[in-house]
Amino acid sequence: MTEIVFYILAAAAVVGAALCVLQRSPIASALWLMTTMFSLACIFVLLGAQLIGILQVLVYVGAVLVLFLFVVMLLNLSHEGSDLRGPWGVGAAVVVIGLLAVELFGLWQYTPARLAREVAQAPQLADPRLAFPAALSMHAVATPNVVEDLAAPLFQTYLIPFEVTSVLLLAAAVGAVVLAKRRI
């Protein structure tokens, strides 16, 4: 049952992303992007990563997308006409969706037994310390505390980039207000 729900959510994410790119209206594009982000958050929850799903909704849908919509509405960027970008846009979307469908079909061939066989042949692929040697320690592998493991680098190693990003988003909102005030 969860496999069927996963494929439905994956299809909704792909369709939402394709329609996000094909929209002429920035508002409609942002709403389709929100649909894609919600689908991805549901996939994360379905896969057992509830924290990442909640962060997906809070950060991307709740903050970035709302800020994007706020800026677009302040700038009053509206276009008349069709939402689809002509036959070339539809053709590109069909090609991308077809390629993604071929990839999903290839992934569908993977069974747990095949994955176990491939990991048994290359055990270094299953060791997270080899993929992320600086980020993981034996303590993190032994006792999984997801929130602590995500918060420690964010507020220690990457504190300055995190704060610079928040200042840039604030500057973008202030810039949109200034540009909107000029037109009034």
Order of H and E elements: HHHHHHHHH
User: Structural class, please?
Assistant: mainly alpha
What is the approximate shape? flat
CATH class of the domain at 1-109: Mainly Alpha
Number of strands: 0
Round the mean pLDDT to the nearest integer and report it: 77
Roughly how many Å apart are the termini?
54 Å
Sketch the major β-sheet: none
- In the CATH classification, which architecture of the domain at 1-109 applies? Up-down Bundle
What amount of the residues lies in strands?
under 5%
CATH topology type of the domain at 1-109: Four Helix Bundle (Hemerythrin (Met), subunit A)
Radius of gyration: 21 Å
Uncertain runs are none
DSSP helical segment count: 9
- Looking at CATH, the homologous superfamily of the domain at 1-109 is NADH-ubiquinone/plastoquinone oxidoreductase chain 6, subunit NuoJ
Summarize the amount of helix as a percent range.
over 70%
